[in-house]
Specification:
globular, alpha+beta, homohexamer, six-stranded antiparallel sheet, nine-stranded mixed sheet
Chain lengths: 308, 308, 308, 308, 308, 308
């Protein structure tokens, strides 16, 4: 059964969800995005993701062509339809909005005021098997020399796709350790985030996140804070650097696709005893209860055939 | 007669030159680009542009799937073909290479090492009539609060499309003066460049460009330096700020589509007498001789019907 | 009936309150200041303003020639006297102290050690009608490219008059929108303050102020925090940027002359629904109760004749 | 015989050259300035100073109420008149322009658009005896912790009076060594300038000045470069730090009042042999020939009675 | 009776505790350190210091050759032994670990992987008489122009010995006031720490420390926070600058050798009334109770003969 | 035959050249250094190195206990003596001066004013075999996330040993590629230098060095500029970043021990064709002529037995 996507007012087959080479999302990177996942084929934290997406739009001066209510309807329809053809797998749903087709490149020679935003929603099945090592062995983070955008250039508080610097940083560290994940510093040397997740440390019974000025505050980070509050584990935001990670008890990457992954090494130095820690395991367990599914098993039990 | 484009090894109809929503150029902005124009239907400074494009690829860790020689052949073929359907208009040729299709999004779940770059060349006719006011009245530049990427995050020396910050800056200043052009400062407050051109000042008989660390060194800027050398006008690079523009005799924007445009106001303050200056006119004349076409007339004489 | 001012130990007619061109306040900007207003012809938060003024003096190495007690007496006398000739209008009282007369310029050729500070207090009636639009329509803030002094050069925690950068920034944005107010960023791109007020946002039930390192902590900001505490609305300080303002529910400018004004647009983008918000109105109402005067009516009901 | 000044269109007695406390030059530091001296009672480099003053005005958005030609006439008249009452002493002539009287403070409640600039020219006799030690023993420069304005806040390329930071820095170092001169670093730690002069070093046969981005390029610095060109001594601009001063052969302060003074210590460490150097002496001699007066003798031979 | 030290696995006479000139601690500054003192001949906060030392080692990639337990044993043995020969004086115990002997310099030409860390523990009697003036008159802090390392270069959160910049800064300010202590700013101009202590201010009933990103969080600072908690005095971390010190009620330097010293002047300006304050005295008293020794008397009653 | 060193006024056996643990060079890193090599057993560029060493001392406020002439004599004596026991190998001579023994740690309780500098000269045979791969295959440089000291903290223009940050950076990159050399960026992201050499690129017929503000200007870099001048190859200083290295034709590391080494990869990306280039070979050849020894053969022909 075929999957569908939403493109500029219409549902299309996923294979037909393409953009003309003149789109400003391609030409200028003038776009914002968001991404959620399903649990048991239901969208998780749908409202949180969609509202963040609309805030990203507002900051980027993109006027969504449909109201929030309609966006929610579209999402539900795509998830419902595409789940059927997913062999029981969970889905990721992607939101994407660009400033529209560039009239100069397109040959229609209008002024930017004439642009109509391009609006896409599409989904893909979550390839859990890719992250099995993350959960079993834990992640090795390397801080590349490349630094994350400073907020005076572009706010990291929106989810966008100007990530060429991260592509380059990722290439650099993957030639060192193909399984490593690049952890970006801001221009003052503080820990910021990875290309696809937040980053927090657990030390002396507290969890510390980098300050929100240089990061995209993830919905998973919000869920984490809720679970920590339940567990009466203090949470705070502070400027942290490599030292704090090296001397932490545990470190974690909150992220939409797999909720929370353990980081066990930074720049080749073990964090704690260099293995996924007990507090991570405890939080994953509680998270699993909340979503009604064993998150650990979802990842660790995944095999290539099923998940891809 | 229909125009063609080059897409991943094949010539396709321009209307069929589209990218899947999973392409890393769309998903991560992992792409580089370049752009040249024709004079009298011949590519101008073809070698310069193509070599810069290949340097951009190298920095961005993108391995071009074809050698430079073949790239040149493709370009010539597109220009030759598409000029025929351009009603005599000149063309812009765009180079675009991305890191390829994102296997996770695409559902094929490979590792990044498996990516094959996406390679596009396409053209569009130059809409000269859009820039008529630039030449007749001169340009008003406004420096938005948004700053340009610092080189420690991403080198401005490559031509890329992570320009969401410029989209936002442009929106901000266009709501103030719809015809204004945003001129970006670096994070130290030095003049850098606009979203589509370099920027230089002419003062006391010399031309000063911002230092190359924060700019894309344009091919048109190179041509300008060659003309200045002929005219024995000194040229240097220095950190310049708004003060230097306000007190300059003239200011210019070198750029591929219209070679060199006069800037006559910055932040609502006139530069010189607030009109396109005589040295600009002199350089445009010499440039016209070199390319065998009256550049001034090309722009000023353009009308909407012909150029779009 | 004529108004008086205090100048270096004497009460003089306001028209005679002048400074020689050699004064270091003029020659070097070596001065500090403060400013309070009356409510019902009584000085408001007199102690707060005078103590801040004395702290500013201490930081700037200016030794006040009179003790705090005497400064209070002078203030009361000026307000009492000048209120009589104010046709019922409220007053602003200005404190101003400079490093004294520059002996080199004055021709007396002593050393800086010989300087005697210049000390002025003067008043003027509050022109409420000027701010009517602020309250009725709300304020449009624009962030100019010019940035606020960093604290390593000069502490923003004192109230001083080295504000040429703000004069320039104001000129730039007023040519875009004559009614707009310039909102300055610090050199890292964080929101700091306007030339005459603090700036806070209200979002999700909390109020956030920029951190105190880059701002003058206003007495009105202190009053605001007191009212928020009464209303059990959380208040915190954080590094905020344009994104946070764009996505806030409301934004306000606390300031001595009109207490708290609603900001409804930033860089041409509406904040919330683009109109003065209900929480602002609620706070103004509570503030009015505290001072025994309807602040909203004072501004909105002002006409040119009465207030100037 | 009494001296005169120019104030807003009129010549007044110097003692009557005063500013109302509401002037924006006092209230906001919204002013620019310039300063020249006479040699043999003739203005020195009059054109250079006046043109720089007009450039400062343009950057600061101050529209001079009289054209340059009239400014020159006013200057000549003041110098001619005031030289008569100067007992043979040379004069300094000061230019000063502000944004005008602040209508809100003045009670006239207009908008900034209504401001008329305040324009002053005034003179004072040069107190050469104050600088005798500078020439005989040489100057001790100390770098305070306070840093100079960065150009992204306010360009140092104009001559203005927002110098409260320098007042504070001066106070700090004078309590350490009352005769020392504060030499300011920029926010990156490069040498910038003192409160009243430029600063250059002489090393291995070349003269190096800080880069122009963080300094006011003095007219005396221009004269110095002309003399160096005559003497075939290379001159360049570079980022220099304390190390370069400590290891220089000589260091000098070019400045209008006394042309060029020798710096012999920095932060208590001697430069070269800790005494005024031979190259300084040579340049002062050549400078004296050019102006037709023995500059060294003018300073060293000055006594308190004559010069003050 | 002779004192001993620990050097690379052996107890040696203190006089024989020397390092070869090839040690990487000397050649590259590749070392970390820590330092504790005794109270009544017992190590104070031994666990805190040793754990911090091991965290410093981990960050610096130095693998301690002995486990923590053994380190504690060594410390106790040195203190026990050396206290006997200390004439009743208290001791300081120093931990020092380097990356080991540099094989290239040593002529053994191995690769860095071959290095064995050098590990030293040694003690010295505390020269309390040196700090008598600190307690009786209070300390004068001066902020040199030299700035402290930014964390992106080297974390201040470890205790190390790359302090040449502090040696230079100290020399500069001691030539101004031989008894002054250099207080370092970070590269943004915030107060950081002195070469041998933390720095906090007490204002309006609260204690404020610089943020931990630019400082070594001292064990004495931890003790201070414990005492403040007992006394119900709020404590927070914030970016503070010179202004905050100038306008504080008191300022203190927490440090291992003498626990907490009063700072009474900064850059020649008195803090509070310029004398050691009552809250400092109160905290020292409580601290004395906690350690079972009168800390004030220990310092103030010290004489040269006894303590050195 | 035994080798000697110079230590505080005396020649001692190398094995006895040790420093007490209290030396300020160890305790505070308060030291400077320099290093030269022999060619044919004669010191190379002796004057250049010694004068730089004395300049480093002056900046660091260390007063050398012997004049330059005597330093030269000591050097010659050590080289003459130690060459005899070097089996024909060339030597490195190291200069090292510290602020002297720390009286507090040493128990002698004086004040810093009492310090006598520690002065060491010592030599070691050059282990050329270690660098064979550098010449044969070329060097892989990796830019760690750790950044080099900014000049506002400590000038890189002196040769010192506060290099813990480089130790850490080196450890990080060596765990990725054990043969790689760490190339440090400054805090703005510009290329600075490696822990033991300068770094230059060769591109389009010119050689570009990073600007001198963030580097130690090597004596080998000076020699390189002299050879380039002979060969009429332009040389300039500019801010360069990773992009410039990636797109260079060749890159080289000038350094005392092996003069000039080819860099063939940066962050795993080949420079040019990824092999030592012809211009490097040409310069090495000319350099060999100048020093009367085949530098290439010295390295490539070295074997472990002979050189270590």
């Amino acid at each position: 059964m075929s999957t569908i996507a939403y493109l500029n007012g219409q549902f299309v087959l996923s294979s037909e969800c393409v953009l003309p080479i003149y789109d400003t999302g391609i030409v200028m990177g003038a776009s914002v995005t968001d991404l959620l996942r399903t649990f048991n084929h239901q969208p998780y934290r749908l409202q949180d993701h969609v509202h963040r997406f609309y805030r990203s739009c507002k900051y980027a001066r993109l006027l969504p062509p449909v109201p929030i209510g309609q966006t929610l309807e579209i999402s539900k329809k795509i998830i419902e339809n595409n789940s059927k053809s997913a062999d029981g797998r969970e889905l990721c749903l992607v939101y994407y909005m660009t400033a529209g087709e560039n009239p100069i490149y397109a040959g229609a020679a209008g002024l930017p005021g004439d642009l109509k935003p391009t609006y896409v929603q599409h989904s893909f099945p979550l390839p859990f098997h890719l992250w099995k090592d993350h959960f079993v062995q834990g992640i090795h983070c390397i801080t590349p020399a490349v630094r994350h955008w400073p907020p005076q250039c572009l706010s990291s508080k929106i989810k966008h796709r100007n990530r060429l610097h991260m592509w380059i940083g990722d290439q650099e560290i993957k030639r060192m350790d193909p399984k490593a994940v690049a952890l970006y510093l801001d221009i003052d040397g503080n820990i910021a985030e990875t290309g696809g997740s937040n980053f927090v440390i657990y030390r002396d019974g507290s969890v510390i996140s980098p300050k929100r000025k240089n990061i995209l505050w993830g919905v998973s980070l919000t869920v984490l804070t809720e679970i920590l509050a339940e567990l009466r584990i203090p949470f705070c935001e502070d400027d942290i650097q490599t030292y704090d990670v090296v001397t932490a008890d545990e470190a974690w990457m909150p992220t939409t696709p797999y909720c929370l992954a353990p980081v066990v090494k930074i720049n080749s130095t073990p964090i704690g005893d260099g293995r996924p820690g007990p507090m991570w395991r405890k939080i994953i367990s509680r998270w699993s209860e909340l979503v009604g599914k064993d998150i650990y098993q979802e990842i660790v039990g995944a095999d290539h055939k099923v998940s891809s």
